[in-house]
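SAMPLE LOG
Freezer: B-3
Tube label: C17
Construct: single chain, 243 aa
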Amino acid sequence: MTKTFLYQYPPLVAGTLLKRYKRFLADIELETGEMITAHCPNTGKMTGVCTPGSLVQVSKSDNKKRKLAYTLEMIQVHDSSPTWVGINTTLPNKVIKIALEKQLFPEWNLNYTEIFSEVPYGKDHKSRIDFLLKSDSNLPIYLEIKNTTLAQENMALFPDTVTTRGQKHLQELISLLPQAHGIMLYFINRSDCVDFAPGDSLDPVYGKLLREAINQGVKILPCRFEVTPTSIYYLGLANLILN
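STRUCTURE (predicted):
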């Protein structure tokens, strides 16, 4: 399997998840036996990937102004075939920006010379697109990224719960056409998924909007990544399943 190195984590510390609560907090027992409360940088339900007793990896900040020194970075799932799942939702944008700056993925067929982050767009410019890609000779490209961690067997699913915000992003990408290109990139933050599908049973409205977006011309990039306690690698595109 061909994989492309993209990102190196800072030194991480191993531990065991005790519980996640109040969305942004996780109690963890480190390998040393120390009990800590870490920041959980993920607003989603994290369905299937936050089971107490799971092995985790956390980073530690030297910033003394931070209330919580530790950040939960990844959780291990599947006892029989262990897989690390990246749950830090701030990382996908950093990783994709590295890939865009180095133009690592010619198969994406994106033509651009400039990259802009967090650009206002949509109705009354009240939303912000993750990346706006521009060039002198091509239509602008609006690129939105969704961290994807839910899986059923070897299929990644998004979303893992009802997401009115995600629905709005699809509608706004559709509204950009044909004056611009719209791309929805699903950052599949685990290596055990070869297929991708909308989570229809969890948010049927989102699934309907995703199919409409595709029919209207929005490009879908379900990107597979391998997460390890040291690095993140790109594995290629997952198969898009819309049955």
